[in-house]
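Why do we care about 3D structure at all? Because function follows from shape, and shape follows, mostly, from sequence. That is the central idea of this module. The next example makes it concrete: a single protein chain, its amino acid sequence, and then its structure expressed as tokens.
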Amino acid sequence: MFSFKDILNDLPLPPEVKKSITALEIAKKNWKNIVPQEFFDKAIPLSFDNGTLIIEVPNHYYSQILSSQTLEILEKLENATPPDLKPLFKHLKFVINPLFY
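And the structure:
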């Protein structure tokens, strides 16, 4: 059976696209250990673009609270990143989607 990483490497995609897919996979796979438990179901990694992880939240309250924890979140994301991909996560961007919940 092929792993996701093997399949991704075999696809004829530009390196930046592969990097974005890998970064999003890392964030989603480790999300429970990255954000505080009370925010786990209120913030979801949505996409990754050029070093920026885009996180969907339901309102400004969660955006504000999580923004204040940006450095801690980025540090945990980097700790979850394999050494050969570092530095991967540089910034966080929060987008509000009130229809999220």
